[in-house]
Amino acid sequence: MPAISLKVNQRAVTAEVEPRTLLVEFLREHLSLTGVHVGCDTSQCGACTVFVDGVSVKSCTMLAMEADGAEVTTIEGLAQGGKLHPMQQAFHEHHGLQCGFCTPGMVISSADLLKRNPRPTEGQVREWLEGNICRCTGYHNIVKAVLACAEGSAK
Amino acid sequence: MSQGPSQHLPTVGKSVPRADGTPKVIGTARYVDDLPAMPGELHGATVRSPVPRGILKSIRFDPNFDWSDITIVTAEDVPLNTVALIAEDQPVLAARHINHAYEPIVLLACADKRRVLLAKNAVSLDIEALPTVLDVHESLKNTHTVWGTDNIQKRYLITKGRADTEDSVSAIDAVLAECEVRVSGSYSSHHQEQLYIEPQGVVAWWDESGVHATGSLQCPFYVHKAFLKTFGEQPSRIHITQAVTGGGFGGKEEYPSIIALHAALLSKKSGKPVRMIYDRKEDIEATTKRHPAFCEIETGCDKDGKLRAIKMRVLMDGGAYLTLTPVVLSRGALHASGAYEWEHARIEALALATNTPPNGAFRGFGAPQTIWAIERHIDKVAAVLGMDPLELKRKNILKLGSVTATGQVLHTSVAGVECLEKARAVSEYDRRRKAYSEKQGRIARGIGAAVFMHGAGFTGSGERYLKGKAAVDLLPGGRLRIRTASTDIGQGTETVFRQIVSDAAQVPLSDVDFAVPCTTHVPDSGPTVASRTVMVVGSIVEAAAREVGDRVRKEQQASGGTFAEAADRLLAREGEVTSLLQYSPPSYIQWDDQHYRGDAYPCFAWACFIAEVEVDRETFEVTVTNFWSATDVGRAINPTQCRGQIEGGALQAIGWALFEELVWDKGIIKNPRMTNYIVPTALDAPPFHTVLVEEPFSFGPGGGAKGIGELPMDGGAPAVAAAVEHALGIPMDDLPLTPERLFARSASGAQT
Questions:
Q1: CA distances, B93 to each of B59, B81, B82, B178, B337 (Å)
Q2: Which residues of B touch A138 (CB under 8 A)?
Q3: Who among A36, A89, A98 is closest to B644 (CB)?
Q4: Calpha distance B455→A40 (Å, rounded)
Q5: Which strands make up the sheet holding B54-61, listed edge to edge?
Q6: In chain A, which residues fall in CATH 1.10.150.120?
Q7: What is the CATH architecture of A3-76?
Q8: A chain contacts of residue B17, beta-carbon cutoff 8 Å
Q9: Rounded distance, CA B582 to CA B605, Å?
Q10: Min CA distance, B542 vs chain A (Å)?
Q11: Burial B326-357 (b: 16+ CB within 10 A, else e)
């Protein structure tokens, strides 16, 4: 089996994987990073979204081997020094979640948006999050959380 | 530490963040498939019928496949082959008769996840196909009997006024004949998939203490009951635990019993723990969905719009087995006459069997289907009368002292008018309705409203039979622990119960714990369904917390010290301090189950939803541009969470109206994936303008909370359809309103 080396949540990881292993399987099954969720198997729901080299990616659309040499950040690696990432804090405070299953992907995706566009409009938030599906909230408080986070970080 | 009432800051009415928020935002919340593998754990899989009806002749296991590490379970291995629920018609595994596509036949398990899927492909089924019944109209004809003797799974008849007589059909027809204006119509609604983002899953194992199952589920005691029946184990040897659950919406009410039985059967045979997690395709194909319904309505009214009489027939598609269909049909029938007062009513509701996967619980539980029909019909009556539909609804809405179709006198907590007027004002309905009626270009605009109520708690005597229980324990240091089988599946039970307990016992919110729901450790509070968690179980929890808090404070008064010190003294002296209480419904509730008459629900929550749409007249795409609602919740324990329920439920209803459609071909689902079963995204969701109305229910907790979990699913579809109808001028009587269907309706030239 081929070996891959990558950084996951700032930790160096080397592993042998079957070539067909998806990144999401690698993260969940080899590294026990179970905050990365699988909701659909077909790249619609976005619950498995992670950062790969600073860009949000649905980890079910990528082979683990493609992440060789990359830097991966999952929801577990987003908080720094015991402090929630501002986007995690915003989702918590603004009730941007109910069942929470979509939340890890939703938070990562939203954090990526603010990296690219620190002050998005409501329409831009909705458009960006189109690939992350939530069945509980009606998105109202998710959008509110992202906008509040943008507001907060702009201060 | 809290010392007493003077220092307690109330939490009810405050939008405190979710108690389970932090683990969910940092990714440490463990949903069932996030639980670490147990030693020796196997992965389970299910071989299902490819045909909707037939006789299973044989099961063939490919001799070229290596079966040495595969555990195989068939019907022969099931101790008592029935899924315990209302009836005992559904087998755990089909033995001979196959009644729907995807019916489970063989279970397989293997330590290697990929090999179990290969093993699935190495099983072939020899099935002799039989003629099928795939819709309610066919089923009613009973050309082929696929359930019981006549395909009728359940029938209810509700009569009022002159129709309340032996020959109710002739009587209601006579009343209708006397009415100045008569309007008739038929309205259909379709399947809907719950599509919780976390698919169904369970881990099961056996050990010296009995059988264990941990899973994504709403009702641990349903699974307990199913295990009791199928395995014949002692109740104390069955341990069912709810894992963190990624949404349910009813879809994880009764179905988890089946997947848990399957995993436990594989575990029993293999002697190993078994993990069974459905992928999305299997979840959509095999699990329950919303019952499709076909409703025919004939009403009579005066020329000025005073509604007089209604004759209605509801046909619901129950699918191949009974599951919860009688109760779904009941709720549908009880909401069928809408939020309006009728002097004379005859409502007949039938559930019919078809060779499709059993339909089951889904938020609203039958009410969205009949409310869809009655709301569309009242709009039709308004069109015939030349009246504004909201004005017609205003004129006939149930008020304090009104009498419902079952003869229930509404003597408390009625807020229909208030909701209607608030939504009307905040949406500027009258101005927009007039403006959008003007001639339009390619983009047509429309606005429409739905007015409705939803009964909270179990129907009629349900709560009296159920006797839900919940407990509050005193813990060292004066902490309190809530023990209940009411699960948090995302709707916020944990948070709201903590708020109720915090205020009732007057302890800080941070001193209240919520026990993991496991049947071995929590009392049976009844299922997490029917908008009953806050209103019913919340009121038990509130009383229990008050009792425990009072005992500690009595000790404090007698011997001094802080609340925590008094708690510790009490615990040292008595060993255990717990209040375990049982629900007793308000004594005024009188219900006659035989004649379906009386107080159907202890109270109703009320709402008016108003949708504004844009319709592209060339592509027939519908965009919901604004969504206003005014909803009476009794008392909002946590206003933001309360709004979250309303917005989330309303969007599910918008999805049901506009996008969501299961495509069937001879009993087979053609689109069992999120690629082609389309649910709303953030872009599809309208801006929600959500107004909370608080008309307290005196028996509800926190100063009068009512159940609101299901209500928001009721009004979204008829409001959107009314707006589309307003925009296009074409009747919208059948769901869903997909562009293809709108195009076809437009092309057929139908005009209102």
A1: 13, 7, 8, 55, 39
A2: 644, 647-651, 685, 688
A3: A98
A4: 34
A5: B97-98, B54-61, B123-129
A6: 86-151
A7: Roll (3.10)
A8: 92-93, 95
A9: 24
A10: 23
A11: bbbbbbbbbbbbbbbbbbbbbbbbbbbbbbbb
- 3-class secondary-structure state, position A116: helix
Give me the pLDDT at residue B749, please: 65
B417, containing H or E segment: helix B416-427
CATH domain B5-30+468-582 topology: Aldehyde Oxidoreductase; domain 4 (3.30.365)
| Domain B5-30+468-582 matches domain B37-131+194-286 at the CATH topology level | yes
What residues of chain A lie within 8 A of the CB of B716, using their CB?
Answer: none
Q: For B403-459+597-752, CATH number?
A: 3.30.365.10
Contact A138 B673 (CB under 8 A): no
pTM: 0.97
Rounded to a whole number, what is the distance in Å from the CA of B230 to chain A's nearest CA?
30
B27·A35 Cβ contact <8 A:
yes
What CATH number does the domain located at B37-131+194-286 have?
3.30.365.10
d(CA B418, CA B215): 42
Chain A, chain B: beta-carbon pairs less than 8 Å apart: 171
Our measurement of the distance from residue B159's CA atom to the centroid of its chain's CA atoms, rounded to an integer in Å, reads 26
Both tokens assigned to B113: 């996840």
Q: Give how far A69 is from chain B: nearest CA, Å.
A: 24
Mean local confidence (pLDDT), A22-36: 98
β partners of residue B664: B669
Q: Which residues belong to CATH 3.10.20.30 in chain A?
A: 3-76
Polymer length in residues for chain A: 155
CA geometry: angle at B505 spanning B501 and B508, to 5°? 75
Q: Which own/partner contact pairs does A17-22 have at CB distance under 8 Å and 24+ positions apart?
A: A17/A64, A17/A65, A19/A63, A19/A65, A20/A63, A21/A63, A21/A64, A21/A65, A22/A59, A22/A60, A22/A62, A22/A63, A22/A64
Task: Tell me which chain A residue has its CA closest to the CA of residue B247.
Answer: A99
Q: pLDDT value at position B2?
A: 43
Tell me, what's the pLDDT at B4? 46
Q: State the Cα–Cα distance between residues A47 and A108, nearest whole angstrom.
A: 10
Which sequence spans correspond to the domains of chain B?
5-30+468-582, 37-131+194-286, 403-459+597-752
Task: Report the chain B residue with the minimal C-alpha distance to residue A35.
Answer: B27
Map tokens 């004066």 to a residue.
B478
Q: B627: which 2 tokens? A: 């969504």
Q: In whole angstroms, how far apart are CA B568 and each of A105, A126, B483, B573, B624? A: 44, 52, 20, 9, 57
Q: Report the CATH number of the A86-151 domain.
A: 1.10.150.120
* Model pLDDT, residue B3: 45
Instruction: Determine contact, residues B537/B494, Cβ cutoff 8 Å.
Output: no
Quick: pLDDT tens for B688-742. Answer: 999 999 999 999 999 999 999 999 999 999 999 999 999 999 999 999 999 999 9
Reading the block at residue A7, the tokens are 């950084």
Q: CA triplet B300, B302, B303: central angle to 5 degrees?
A: 120
Q: In angstroms, rounded to a whole number, what is the distance separating the alpha carbons of residues B692 and B677?
A: 32
* pLDDT tens digits, B558-615: 999 999 999 999 999 999 999 999 999 999 999 999 999 999 999 999 999 999 999 9
**Taking a C-beta distance cutoff of 8 angstroms, is the pair B219, B485 a contact?**
yes
Residue-wise pLDDT for B59-79, tens only, equals: 999 999 999 999 999 999 999
DSSP codes joined into one string, B273-333: -EEEE--HHHHHHHS--PPPEEEEEEEEE-TT--EEEEEEEEEEEEESS-TTHHHHHHHHH
Round the average pLDDT of chain B to a whole number and report it. 97
Residue of A nearest to B244 (CA): A99
Residues of A in contact with B36 (CB under 8 A): 32
Cβ of residue A103 closer than 8 Å to a chain B Cβ: yes
